[in-house]
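Justification of computing resources. Each target in the renewal requires a structure prediction run like the one illustrated here; the chain below, 322 residues long, is used simply to show the kind of job we budget for.
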Amino acid sequence: MTLPTGINIDEPRYPQNTYVNRAKHFLIVTNPLNVFASEAALNNAARIVKDYKAGRPIPDVKTEDELWKAKYLYDSAFHPDTGEKMMLIGRMSAQVPMNMTITGAMMTFYRSTPAVIFWQWANQSFNAVVNYTNRSGASPISTEQLMTSYCMATSGALVTALGLNRLAKNLTGVLPKLVPLAAVAAANCVNIPLMRLQELKNGVPVIDENGKEYGSSVTAAQQGIAAVTLSRIFMACPGMVLTPVLVNYLEKKTTVFKRFPWANSPIQILFCGFVLTFATPLCCAIFTQKASISVNSLEDDLKQKIKKESPNVQTVYYNKGL
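Resulting structure tokens:
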């Protein structure tokens, strides 16, 4: 069988104009099994992608399915704009194993002040890595900016978590267990914009459907970062809401934790992992990664430039990041 030519692997395999197709796309991209891919496998996938784009023969790839398998493995580890290999824990394929551990621990040890401080710190450290790794384009970020974002997000999460813990200390049932969710939501609203401050200052590149770049737009950056922040909060909600409900049920209706006190944390971590396996891609799919914006919504100078160069272009596109 001969590999077909003319396959556009610069775009996802499934058209991204519907939610279902975006979900299928991200189910593959965020597959946690990709974390275990060897360096040799990743480098081989990169070679296949680059050779195919350059029109060079790929004797070891015979079918379209094999080509897309290599492309998705490549996408799981390499930045879509810069082509750089991303650090392991910053890849979207690491979201489930990392988040299930941190989230499960945050909800298990939510009453202990030292534990709250430690796990909120761990969560924000992880978030800082993810936000930096998945920023849009080759946006430079200074060490000072990186540390400012990290410290402010961690402080915001700690203040929120400890403050709500004080307010909820006399409450019972599910409500006290939802405190970590409020802290995570508050921290995301600080961490993501700060980590991508260069985009808010300088904008992100906008292109037309043929790939022609017109310049950078701050308005597009604002919309993209807002979308990422919302999707991250939505991503956290299922696990951090359903897990306390499950634990509350097991505490009140069963004797599981009385018979096996040690099972509390493993049950929460494993259940979080199950929920996040689906919540991560389904929430990534809420907004398209290749986002669109009307030319009329752009800054005046950029809008005028596009209208002058390409008067028929009404919509431009940009990478919103993940």
